[in-house]
Specification:
The chain has six helices and 17 strands. It is α/β, with parallel strands linked by helices and 308 residues long. The structure holds NADP nicotinamide-adenine-dinucleotide phosphate (NAP).
């Protein structure tokens, strides 16, 4: 008879690895399934400076340490892409490209991805001056000049946050009005142009630099005038997309596809949990992802005890 796991964790970022550590400690028979590059979005963060107790570490190193910790406790990790989930039954089924597994509970920890602009140089210089997270990387640009792309809450908040530490911030927005809520707009507009300069109707054409961002090429989409801006860092805040394609039609999600859960990370389907950036939440950081990993295992353990 096919073996039944207590728990299958899908995703190996901080939420998945924290869940793996807690599951091993709870002695649940657990497997982690990961796709492509292990470690989640954190591996793209050059330096992580806000994870308590570990002040100087790269995203890659922190991710590796989390994995080593889980492996030391004996976790089984398989690199297999999950292609389907059967959740509408007591014992859930996880189908991958090559196999089929059964589990009493499932934790979805597949994260989210920052939307990319798709311009020349963006990919090559990501982690070398191009960042998608001002809270994570802003401190590395103290007293330097940076640009933020976007006009929503995230971009405006990022511009205000960066203005506290950077010499100058350019906010590049493709339209002539911001999408961000009024309170944020008011706070943004309190800064004088020497601190935060808004470039309206402007789009990014290219990120230029050899090993680090040195300049960007921009275009005014009304006048078609092109110019070059010398900057040290570029923050792209044009939204995120959750990696929830696998379960969007199986559990309740918000209009953007983020999975809705209760405080214990329980989704609308019993025995199915969502942890980390895939979940609708207010703060998407390594520490909150790791916390979700722990919380979801705590809930899954109780669910298994009560139902099997
Ligand atoms: P968002 O609200 O979807 O805004 C994305 C912004 O990026 C928009 O201004 C959009 O321009 C621009 N954009 C999108 N694609 C672009 C492209 N290809 N090129 C140039 N610009 C592009 O996303 P978000 O700001 O990341 O916020 C995500 C969610 O988190 C929102 O629901 C937001 O309310 C919430 N949030 C709330 C708070 C808060 O309440 N304090 C803080 C942070 C986030 P257009 O305006 O022209 O479409």
């Amino acid at each position: 008879m096919t073996e039944i796991y207590d728990l299958i964790i899908i995703g190996s970022g901080p939420a998945g690895m924290a869940a793996a550590i807690y599951a091993q400690r709870a002695m649940l028979k657990t497997m982690v399934l990961e796709k492509d590059v292990p470690g989640g979005q954190v591996i793209n963060t050059y330096e992580v400076d806000n994870y308590p107790g570990i002040p100087d570490i790269t995203g890659f190193e922190l991710s590796t340490k989390m994995r080593e910790h889980a492996e030391k406790l004996g976790i089984e990790i398989k690199s297999e892409e999950v292609v389907d989930l059967l959740l509408d039954q007591t014992v859930k089924v996880v189908k991958t490209t090559g196999s089929e597994y059964q589990s009493k509970a499932i934790i979805m920890a597949t994260g989210a991805r920052w939307k990319k602009l798709g311009v020349k140089g963006e990919k090559e210089l990501t982690g070398r001056g191009v960042s998608y997270c001002a809270t994570c990387d802003g401190a590395f640009f103290r007293n330097m000049e940076v640009a933020v792309v976007g006009g929503g809450d995230v971009a405006v908040e990022d511009a205000i946050f960066l203005a506290r530490m950077c010499k100058k911030v350019y906010l590049i927005h493709r339209r002539d009005e911001l999408r961000a809520v009024k309170i944020l707009q008011d706070s943004l507009l309190k800064h004088d142009e020497d601190k935060i300069k808004i470039l309206w109707n402007t789009e990014l054409k290219e990120v230029i630099g050899k090993d680090q961002v040195e300049k960007i090429s921009i275009i005014n989409n009304k006048t078609k005038e092109e110019s070059i801006l010398d900057i040290d860092g570029l923050f792209i805040g044009i939204g995120t997309d959750p990696n929830s394609q696998l379960i969007q039609d199986k559990v309740k999600c918000d209009e953007k596809g983020y999975v809705l859960t209760d405080d214990s990370c329980q989704t609308s389907v019993k025995g199915v949990y969502a942890a980390g950036d895939i979940r609708q939440k207010t703060l998407r950081q390594i520490i909150t992802a790791a916390a979700d990993g722990a919380t979801s295992v705590y809930a899954a353990e109780r669910y298994i005890l009560e139902n099997f």
